[in-house]
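User: Please run a holo structure prediction.
Assistant: Happy to. Please share the sequence and the ligand.
User: Here you go; the ligand is adenosine-5'-diphosphate.
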Amino acid sequence: MAMQWKDKLKDCKIIFVVGGPGSGKGTQCEKVVHKYGYTHLSTGDLLRAEVSSGSERGKHFQNIMEAGGLVPLETILEMLKDAMIAKADVSKGFLIDGYPREVKQGEEFEKRIKPPTLLLYIDAGKETMIKRLLGRGLTSGRSDDNEETIAKRLDTYYQATEPVINYYQPKGIIRKINAEGTVDEVFAQVCAALDALK
Ligand code: ADP
Ligand code: MG
């Protein structure tokens, strides 16, 4: 019998990368991919790819993202699961960037896929995040990198995502990364957390 997708993911490390918008999740994940060869899955990038496709579903996502809100859990989880299955044979680990955005998303991922090995908490202050997002907005072409949407995204982050940290705290898998420094300073902390896994 063909191996089931869950078996294929059995030995994979699952690393949740959680932090506010503009905290530097994508920047750090890219560096981790180069050094450790993990597979990077950004829920934001997956959604933006759907928007670019011009589908009806994509238009719906775009409206939600421009309002700074969260796309429904079922949609995100299915997208993530499909992307993971597609890479399960060749991947030793997954960086799940921008997920879970709320506690419920974390609970459902655990139930339906598997529990995370580690949670990297990319922690930057509000002023730093705003500054970086406005900087990114100059070249990103992202329609949510404008002042009004940034304010809403930050509200969503503090209301919905910060509780995720409290939820995982007692499980002992959180490594808090001070994301105020330079890219390399932050990466040194990320490497220390990942190296401790082996
Ligand atoms: P996220 O994926 O968490 O939204 P990004 O990785 O896209 O954040 O980073 C947002 C912006 O901040 C980008 O323009 C990026 O170049 C910049 N940036 C990321 N990390 C740092 C850092 N440590 N110092 C300065 N700028 C950073
Ligand atoms: Mg990102």
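The radius of gyration is 16 Å.
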